[in-house]
Design goal:
This protein has helices at 19-25, 52-68, 73-83; strands at residues 32-38, 41-47. By secondary structure, the protein is α+β, with helices and mostly antiparallel strands. The chain has two domains: 1-48, Pemi-like Protein 1, Chain: D (Ribbon), CATH 2.10.260.10; 52-83, no CATH class.
Length: 87
């Protein structure tokens, strides 16, 4: 069952997540969130960085996909230069 609480926004735009919800979700000091706003709805979605094992797995998948499509390291450098407006 969901916990429903109310909270207020401070003059600095800060919102306190009630203690019951923080405990239930395991939120700690420094937790990070994606904030989505649409009309009168604000959604906070907690995010966590991947572990090193997950990150290494993602990198190996990316390398395999790049190899499959014939992407070379120089292609990446050129794309970065274009994105930075240096070409």
């Amino acid at each position: 069952m969901s916990i429903i609480e109310t909270t207020k926004m401070s003059s600095k735009g800060q919102v306190v997540i009630p203690e019951n919800i923080r405990k239930k979700l395991g939120l700690k000091h420094g937790s990070q969130f994606i904030v989505v706003g649409d009309k009168d709805v604000v959604i906070l979605k907690s995010i966590t960085p991947p572990s090193m094992d997950e990150f290494e797995h993602l990198v190996s998948q990316i390398k395999m996909q790049a190899k499959e499509v014939g992407l070379k390291e120089n292609d990446i450098h050129e794309a970065i230069k274009r994105a930075r407006g240096k070409i």
